[in-house]
Design goal:
With 132 residues, the protein is of the alpha+beta class. It has 2 domains: 93 residues, K homology (KH) domain (GMP Synthetase, Chain A, domain 3), CATH 3.30.300; 33 residues. It is 58% helix and 17% strand. The protein contains 4 helices and 3 strands; from the N terminus they run H-E-E-H-H-E-H. The chain has a 3-stranded mixed sheet with strand order 1-2-3, with helices on both faces. 17% of the residues are buried.
Length: 132
Amino acid sequence: MRKNSIKNTRINGEVQRELSNIIRGEIKDPRIHPLTSVVAVEVAPDLKTCKAYISVLGDEEAQKDTVAGLKSAEGFIRSKLAKSINLRNTPEIRFVLDQSIEYGVKMSKMIDEVTKDIKTADDADEEQRENI
């Protein structure tokens, strides 16, 4: 099975959906931040390993605590995943912190600041034209 085959894409989507349900509803670890989402999942073609990209809306400490909590609950998550998804092999999950959403929010704020400066400069130019 190729990495980007239709079957692998479907498996990735199903594992992502089930992982987010398990993290949101079944894990009681206080280290895991409530605003944790599964951004993407890459299951290997042999179904042995899986990379789960996790996004945490919070500070750096909350992100580290969440990843540590998820790593310690990996066995529980894998057993729940095995019960909910019928695969030949249940993949071994590696959690990777994905900071792309945080980066996007930061860039959006920077763009807003620049456009705000441009708008204030345009307003000042208009006032000068009106006074002439």
